[in-house]
Amino acid sequence: MNREYTNLLQLYKDLEDNATFMKALDFSVRIVKLCRYLTEEKGEHVLSKQILRSGTSIGANISEALAAESKEDFIHKFHISFKGGNETKYWLLLLHRTDLITDREFESLVRDCQELRKLMGAIIRTAKKNKGVKE
After folding, report:
1. pTM of the predicted model, to two decimals?
2. Which CATH superfamily is domain 3-131 in?
3. Which residue in 47, 52, 83, 107 has its CB near the most CB atoms, within 10 A?
């Protein structure tokens, strides 16, 4: 095995060992499936693209944060992820209030999104505290 391939495998292993990243990845999978349902079953294409972008950006930005070049970059990427969680909650609320998703689907997805937001918020606070940044 060449060194570059070995390093790539280690990167994926490191990501899989990170609980926050894995929760975000699982959430992204749910969002992709939701979008597929919205387009195929409900014929909805505009809102589904919005929630696809915001919901999957959470995990993508966590992935970038885990490879950050500095503590500031780490905090910044987690802030972007946190904001993606806020936006995703908005789109979920809109989908629910327009009857495109059921109460059960809404509650489950919002609960997962909120759990991710809490984790990200705690990570941001800890990183700032360790860096000596005031809230």
Report:
1. 0.86
2. 23S rRNA-intervening sequence (1.20.1440.60)
3. 52
